[in-house]
């Protein structure tokens, strides 16, 4: 029996702290949630099991011949690219926006060895199925690590790379002790509406909450109210282990394509920060410094710093995010 099943019977969740309007229990496949565009599924075999990967394939009214792949972060799914998709398709770009395995509407496996190489390969399978042989790749947060691995693994496919406040700009193992998957899982089971909101207020929005943030918070918190939550938490624990143990920072020098870094400099996100020594924690996740270091590490890269913006530029201040992105894509 798997760890998430062993703890299921003992797992109880207080409901009195979930007072947010419109918050509802959400199953593991988000069947009650409508994405901004039609969701299709690629069925494939991976690691001896049948999986389904959800994605949106949005074709513009007047195509410019270019395709952009949008890769979501760890606490999100492809739906949060809604405004970005609208702006890109208006300019003629075709947009492919998948939910990675373990996220959104895609399969949440009971057994899976997560790696950035595996996620990149899964993502390429969608492009192969759609017969797309050249893409620009935009990754946010954990999606930035997936995007970096994709560019490194498939340089012939990757025309341009955009990293929006990616995690993994530093090797977290140098700062914080390793935490086992089982320990990660126990931490995931404790999460709820209040803990998610507290974290996002601190790292994303500088303690200033706006109604437009509710939608993305509620997708996470809604999961914690559903009986499916243990399998979601188990996959979240596995992906946390992947982020911590599989740094891409040492390979930035090998990225070949033109690269744009869009960095909200207020961001202080760092995996494992809460487990690091107190005197080390302030040294982690300094995006005002990490952006510059990364630009120096990646050949043919450009840095666009967004002052007073946190971990989620395309939600917090979309206009400041989209302007440099479009300039980079169209040049």
UniProtKB/TrEMBL annotation:
Identify the stretch annotated as signal peptide in this record. 1-19
- One Pfam family cited in the UniProt record for this chain: Abhydrolase_1
Q: Which residues form a coiled coil?
A: none
Does the keyword section mention Transmembrane? no
- Residue ranges crossing the lipid bilayer per the database entry: none
Report keywords, A-Z: Signal
Q: Does the keyword Iron apply?
A: no
Q: Gene3D superfamilies recorded for this chain?
A: alpha/beta hydrolase
Name of the protein this chain belongs to: Pimeloyl-ACP methyl ester carboxylesterase
> Which organism does this record belong to?
Flavobacterium arsenatis
């Amino acid at each position: 029996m798997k760890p998430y099943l062993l703890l299921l019977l003992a797992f109880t969740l207080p409901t009195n702290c979930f007072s947010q309007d419109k918050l509802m229990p959400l199953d593991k496949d988000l069947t009650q949630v409508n994405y901004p565009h039609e969701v299709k599924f690629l069925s494939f075999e991976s690691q001896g099991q049948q999986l389904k990967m959800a994605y949106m394939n949005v074709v513009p009214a007047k195509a410019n011949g270019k395709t952009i792949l949008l890769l979501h972060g760890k606490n999100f799914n492809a739906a949060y690219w809604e405004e970005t998709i609208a702006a890109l398709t208006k300019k003629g770009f075709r947009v492919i926006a998948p939910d990675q395995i373990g996220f959104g509407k895609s399969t949440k496996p009971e057994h899976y060895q997560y790696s950035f190489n595996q996620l990149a390969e899964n993502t390429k399978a969608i492009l192969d199925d759609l017969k797309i042989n050249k893409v620009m790749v935009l990754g946010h947060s954990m999606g930035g690590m997936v995007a970096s691995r994709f560019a490194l693994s498939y340089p012939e496919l990757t025309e341009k790379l955009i990293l929006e406040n990616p995690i993994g700009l530093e090797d977290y193992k140098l700062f914080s002790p390793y935490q086992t998957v089982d320990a990660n899982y126990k931490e995931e089971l404790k999460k709820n509406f209040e803990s998610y909101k507290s974290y996002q207020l601190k790292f994303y929005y500088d303690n200033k909450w706006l109604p437009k943030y509710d939608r993305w918070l509620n997708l996470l918190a809604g999961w914690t109210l559903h009986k499916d939550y243990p399998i979601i938490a188990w996959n979240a624990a596995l992906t946390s282990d992947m982020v911590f143990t599989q740094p891409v920072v040492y390979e930035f020098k090998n990225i070949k394509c033109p690269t744009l870094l869009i960095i909200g400099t207020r961001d202080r996100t760092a995996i494992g920060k809460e487990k690091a020594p107190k005197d080390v924690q302030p040294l982690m996740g300094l995006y005002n410094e990490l952006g510059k270091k990364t630009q120096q590490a990646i050949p043919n890269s450009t840095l666009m710093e967004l002052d007073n913006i946190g971990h989620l530029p395309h939600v917090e201040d979309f206009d400041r995010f989209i302007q440099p992105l479009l300039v980079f894509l169209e040049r």
